[in-house]
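Contributing new records

If you add data, match the layout below exactly. Sequence lines come first and carry their own label; structure lines follow with theirs. Keep one chain per record. Anything else will be rejected by the validation script.
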Amino acid sequence: MAMGTSRHPYLLRLVLQGTSFIFETLSFKCYILWGALADFVKGEAMQAARMTGLPETNRNPAVERAMILLGELERRPDGMSLDELVRQTAISRSSVYRILNSLEAHGAVRSVRGGVYVLGGLILKLASSTLTTKMDFDLPRIAQPHLDAAAFATGETAKVSIHDLGATLVVAGAPGFSGHALHTVIGRYLPLHAGAASKVLLAHLPEAEIRRLLRSRLPRFTPLTLCDEAALLAELERIRAQGWSYDGGEYGINIHSYGVPITADDGRVVAAVSIPFVARDDEAHYKRIFEQTLATAQGIGNELKHP
């Protein structure tokens, strides 16, 4: 081997030079790729910081981007596709895809209607831990499949609300898909004296709490809002007797809805189902909404009674 090599010093130098060139080229390319990767990560972090308005130091870029995506979904209760989230946030498509997969695996988002993402049950569960009204069951999780079924059957948005801090709080919802379907915002507080779900909850509060509410000034949202004490008390009595409520435009003049109580195994009314919809001249649609609201409340209540 030594004798063969000594006969070809030029060949040996050529091999060594070629090896050195390849090594330097690969090293340079690795340096470039590493720098590009570092710039990409830094850019993603800066993008997250810009969108949150907070300094980028001492924070995790992946978490920042996840919070940005959750914030966009919170502003769009009807959901957003992967492409829409990419366009809206300017975060790379691959990052959005991976973050959504992680969020979905943990229940923070869920995919509906073939690739449209909405907030998931984990967000509702975390939010429920901040409520002053404590429950022994995970109402949003139990209610969600029933609300999804109601939205699919009617094309309208379906929601569940509870009484909290002297107001009505939306704790779960499913977006409708019809052209006139209304949006609902989970976590939104609504007045307790106007709206189908609100009146159901108010009707089943202790008498002292009802009287306390009536002593305050009740805002009028439309000409149909019940602000008179006698008229409101009569309406609450009627709701308790018939087991459901109807809103013919008390909170929004063209927004109608039916509300039905959800009862726990001890008979307490713990929440209310409502399906709001745009008013129309279609008696069959009203009947379908009413029957679906009844069925949804009964389905959720049965799960609470027989988990």
